[in-house]
Amino acid sequence: MGEEHSVCEFTPEGMRVARNYLNAIRMNGWMPLPSGLLDDHTYSLPIEPEVYVESRSFANRREVGQYLADRFEPLSGRSVADNAYLWSWLGVFYLEGTVQHKTNRLSEYAEHAYLLDPNRQGQLSSRHRLKLAYEIWIHHGETAWFMLNEPVSSLGHFTHRLASAIEIFRSEGIIELAHILYADKSTGRLRNNILGTERASVPPGSLPRFIDVLSQLSMTYDVYGMKAEQLLQLLPAEFDRFRPASPVI
Predict the structure, then answer these.
(1) What is the predicted pLDDT for the residue at 122?
(2) How distant is the alpha carbon of residue 66 from its chain centre?
(3) Residue 53 main-chain phi, psi, to 5 deg
(4) Which range, of 142-156, 169-183, 217-231, averages the lowest pLDDT?
(5) Which H, E and C letters describe 227-248, residue by residue?
(6) ∠ at Cα 123 (119, 129), nearest 5°?
C-alpha cells in the first residue's frame, strides 16, 4: 500500500492539463505527472467532507468497487457517481495502477477510460475504468461477479454492452437474469457463443438479442423493475439453450 492522499476533484484547468497529459503519454510513452496536477489548487480542489485514498494497484474490478465504496461511505447523500471532475482526478491518481502495461503507451481510448467529460458523461461513463467498477459493486454486488472478476485495466465487449445501456445496467433483475443465462459459476467464466460480431450474424439468445428483446418487451412490461424469474418467463424460445435446468428461486 502507498501513502494516503485526500480525494480531490479537478478544476477545469486541471481537466485540461490532465487531458493533455494522457494524450502526450499516448503519443510518446510514459512520463512523470505534471507538477502539482493532483494537489495544487490551480488544478485540484479537495472534496468535503474529506476522504482519503491510498496509492495502490487493483487485481480486478471487485477490489476497486469494494475499496471505493468503503472510502466513499462518508459521502452518502452526495452525488458521487455524477461528479466527472472527481472521477477524472481518481482516474489520473490511479493511472499506473489500473493500466495494463503490455506496452508503454495508452490506447486511443485512454481519455474516456480515465477522464470523464462533464458534458458527455452519460454517454461515456461506462468506459471509465474506476467508475464502472464502483457502480457495478454498489448496484449489484456479487450478483455481477462475472463482471467484477475482470481486470480493471480492460473492458470486454460483454461488460461494455451491458453497462452502456443505463436502464439495463441499473436494473437488478436484468443483471441477475444476465448472470443466470450467461455466467457459469462452475468455471468462473462466461458461456460460449453469447456474443455476436459485426462480421457474423447475431446468434439466437446471445447478448445482443437479449438487449434487443428487452427493449421490445419494455413497450409492454416494466422490465427494468421486474425480478429475474419474472423476466425469464417472458423470454422467447431462442433463449432456451441458456435457461437453467431447475427453476430459479
Answers:
(1) 57
(2) 13
(3) -130, 155
(4) 142-156
(5) CHHHHHHHCCHHHHHHCCCCCC
(6) 100
